[in-house]
Amino acid sequence: MPDQSSSADFQHAQLDWDADGQPRSRQFADVYFASDGGLAESRHAFLLQNDLARRFAELAAGERLVIGETGFGTGLNFLSAWQLFEQHAGADCRLHFVSVEKYPLTRSDLQRALALWPELAPYADALLAQYVAVHPGFQRFTLAGGRISLTLLLGDALEQLPQLDAAIDAWFLDGFAPQRNPQMWCPELFAELARLSHPGTTLGTYCSAGDVRRGLKAVGFSIRRVPGIGRKWEVLKGQFNGPASRPAKPWFARPAWRPAVREALVIGAGLAGCASAASLAARGWQVTLLERHAGIAEEASGNPQGVLYLKLSAHGTALSRLIVSGFGYTRRLLEQLQRGLDWDACGVLQLAFDAKEQARQTPLAAAFPADLLHPLNRQQAEARAGIALASGGLFYPEGGWAHPPALCRLLSTHPRITLRPLHEVVELQRHADGWQAWVAGRLVASAPVVVLAGAAEIARFPAAAELPLKRIRGQITRLAQNPDSSELRTVVCAEGYVAPPRLGEHTLGASFDFHGQDASPTAAEHASNLHLLEDISSDLAARLHSRELDPASLQGHAAFRCTSPDYLPIIGPLAEPQAFAQTYAKLGHNAHWQTQLACPWLDGLYVNSGHGSRGLISAPLAGELLAAWLDDEPLPLPRQVAEACHPNRFAVRQLSRGQSPRRPDKRTELAARRDRR
Q1: CA angle, 324 then 330 then 335, to 5°
Q2: How far is Cα 654 from Cα 525, in angstroms, rounded to an integer?
Q3: Could you give the maximum distance between any two Cα atoms of the chain, in Å?
C-alpha cells in the first residue's frame, strides 16, 4: 500500500507555451504533441493502431470497451477516442477510459491547451465542466449522461497501475519518450500492462524504441512496426497473447454470475440507494427503487445542509484514499445543481480547537496538496469565515455544504429508474430467476439483482444480518439567519459544525447519541447543539442570540447514521455466511492460506451501506463501485480500498482469528467506538 508521500509530492504540470501557443512540459523538457499535427498523430498512433472505429461499430447493445492509457497529458487522446466512439458506437454502448498521469494540468492550462483543437470543443467543454477537485489517487468522471466513464489515476504510473483492477481492451502508451521519461518505460510497467490485459488486448504507441519493443514482447505482446505519420517514420502496434491474470483472494474476486436481464431492485432511497440506482441506470439497467417512506431522502439523507468535510489521515489509509476520491466525485456531481440553493463551494474550516486537534492537523498540512487543504492562522481564518474565532485551523477551499435531498433527486431522476414509495420490504425470497421483495405478505417486485441500501435496516434480511452495523442517532438544529449571522462565509467545524445560511436558515450540529432510538428531535439535543455553537465561535453564537433561545421551541431533523467498526462503508456482493465459513475454514488455522476455491456468492445480492456521517462524500462514488462489481468494469477505487470496503472483510477477519462469523457484542462495539472518537 502506497503511503501518503505520493500525495505530498503531488504537483500539477509546469508548462511553458511557445510562440504558436503549444504547451511544453517543464518537468520532461518535451512537447505534448507536434505543433503541426497533434490530433492526426493521436488518431494514427492510437485510434488506428487499435482498430477502434471497427471495434466501436461492432459493440452490441449494453457492451463497452475499456481503453487504458499511460500519460493523460492534455486529454487529447481521450477526447479523440470519445469523438470516434460517438461517431461509430451504438446509443446503448459505453466507453471506459482509464489513464494514469503524474503531473495533471491545472484547469486553466487544460482549457488553453484544448482550445487548440476547435473540432473537439463539445467534448473538451464537457470535460472542463467536470474538471474540479482533481487530487491525488483515483478520480472518476462521469460524462455524456453516464455513456462515458473517465478514471484518472493521478500519481506515478508505477504506484498507481498496481492498484488498478480492470481488464483493458486497448492500450494507448503515450508517456513522454524513454530518453525524457526513463522511469516509466521499465520492466515493471510492462508487467503491469500484461497483468491488466487479456488475450486479444491491443496496443498502439508513438514510441518505437528497441527497449520498448523488447520489453513488451517479454511480457506477452506481439509487436509490429508500422508506418508512422508526419516526421515519425514508424509507430508500434501490438496484441497481448498471454494468459489473463487470476485474483489472489477468491473471497474478494468478482462474481462470475451475470443476470439474463439487466433489472435490479434497490431497497432504500437515501443517498446510497439513489446513487446505486443512478449508476446502474446509466449502464442500461432498469431499476426499481423501493422506499418505505413517502419520498426520497427522509432519514439520514434528509438534512437541509450536509458538510463536504474531509477527515483525513496523513498515513495513506484506505479511508483517506476513499475520501479523497469520493470528495472529487461528489464535487463534480454538485456542479450539475443550483449553487446557493442546492450547494455551495464556500469552503470548510476545521478549527484547531485544542492541542490534540492541532497535533492531528500539523502532519495533514504537510501530507496533502495545498489546493486540497492548507493551514490558516487565527487572523486568516477569521478573514475567511467572516466571524471572530478562538483559533486557526485547516481550510478546505473546494469544500462547502450541500442539500442532500437535492443530490438524491438528481441521482434518482432517470427514465430507467422507477421510484415506489411506501414500500417497506420485510422479506426477500430467492427463486430461480432472482429475488422477490415482499411487503406485508404481498409480492411487490422481483428482479435478478437486489441492492440493500437501507442503512442499518438491512440487518432485517438474513443474508446481511451478520454484518456489524451500528446505528448512531444524530440531530441538527435549524437557526434563523439575521443580518449579523449572514456574515458567516464558510462552513466552520470543531466538535460540531455550522454552515452559512440556506433559505434563511443556518444548519447547526450534529449530535452523537449512541443510545437514542427515537428519531423525533429533542430539546436536550438542541441544547447540546447550541453548546457546540459556543465552542465553534462565541461571536457567532452571540450574533445568533443562542443564549436567549429556548431549545424546546427550535426546529431540526434527527436520524440515524449507520457505521461499521472500521469506519469504512460496506459495498459489494454478499456471500452465504455459513457456506463461506465452511469453504474458508482453513483460514482459522493459517491466516495466510492460499486457495482458489470459489466464493459461495448469493447470486445477485449486493449491499451499499455503513457510510456514517461521510455519506455525502462516500455514497455517490459507492454507487459507481457497486456498478463496477455488477458489470465487471474497472473499479473506480484502488483494489485495496475496494477490498477494505468489501462485505466479506468481516468474515475473513473473524475466520483468521479463529472465530465463527457472528455479530459483535453491541456493548463491546460501542465502547470501541467511543474510544476511537
Answers
A1: 130
A2: 37
A3: 81
- Residues 200 and 306: their CA atoms lie apart, in Å, by 47
Tell me the CA end-to-end span of the chain in Å, nearest whole number. Answer: 25
- Torsion 23-25-29-30 (CA) sign: negative
CB-CB contact of 608 with 272 (8 Å): yes
**CA separation, residue 335 to residues 79, 171, 254, 401, 556 (Å):** 21, 31, 32, 13, 27
CATH class of residue range 250-298+406-469+565-676:
alpha beta
CATH superfamily to which 348-397+470-563 belongs: D-Amino Acid Oxidase, subunit A, domain 2 (3.30.9.10)
Which contiguous run of DSSP H or E holds residue 404? Answer: helix 404-412
Residues 446-478: tens digit of each pLDDT:
999 999 999 999 999 999 999 999 999 999 999
Give dist(CA 177, CA 6) in Å, integer: 23
- CATH 3.30.9.10 segments of the chain: 348-397+470-563
CA-to-CA distance for 509 and 556, rounded, in angstroms?
A: 10
Dihedral pair phi/psi, residue 187, rounded to 5° = -55, -35
The amino acid sitting at 219 is V
Collapsing DSSP to helix, strand or coil, 156 comes out as coil
Give the torsion through C-alpha atoms of 247, 248, 252, 258, to 10 deg. Answer: 20
Sign of the dihedral defined by the CA atoms of residues 359, 364, 370, 371, in that order: negative
Q: How far apart are CA 262 and CA 588, in angstroms?
A: 38
DSSP 3-state assignment of 45?
Answer: helix
Please name the residues in contact with 542: beta carbons below 8 A apart, sequence gap of 6 or more.
none
CA distance 436 to 426: 11
- Which regions of the chain carry the CATH code 3.40.50.150? 5-240
pTM for the whole thing?
A: 0.94
Q: Is the peptide bond before 318 cis (omega within 30 degrees of 0)?
A: no
Q: How far is CA 276 from CA 272, 331, 584, 617, 624, in A?
A: 6, 17, 30, 14, 7
- Bridge partners for 491 per DSSP: 348
Ranges under pLDDT 50 in the chain: 1-5, 662-677
| CATH 3.50.50.60 domain extents, the chain | 250-298+406-469+565-676
Q: Are 474 and 517 in contact (CB under 8 A)?
A: no
Cβ proximity of 405 and 299 under 8 Å? no
pLDDT at 35: 57
Whole-number pLDDT of residue 176: 63
Q: What is the fold of 5-240?
A: Rossmann fold (3.40.50)
With residues binned 3-state (H G I as helix, E B as strand, rest as coil), the percentages for the chain, rounded to 5, are 35, 25, 40
Q: Angle 404-412/615-631 helices, nearest 10 degrees?
A: 20
The CA radius of gyration of the chain, in Å to the nearest whole number, is 26
Nearest to 282 by CA among 101, 126, 417: 417
What's the pLDDT tens digit per position in 575-628?
999 999 999 999 999 988 999 999 999 999 999 999 999 999 999 999 999 999
- Residues near 9 by beta carbon (within 8 Å), at least 6 away in sequence: none
133: number of Cβ within 10 Å: 22
Close Cβ partners of 575 (under 8 Å, ≥ 6 residues apart): 251, 599, 600, 601, 602, 647, 648, 651
Q: Which three cell numbers stand for residue 386?
A: 467572516
Q: Are 557 and 509 in contact (CB under 8 A)?
A: no
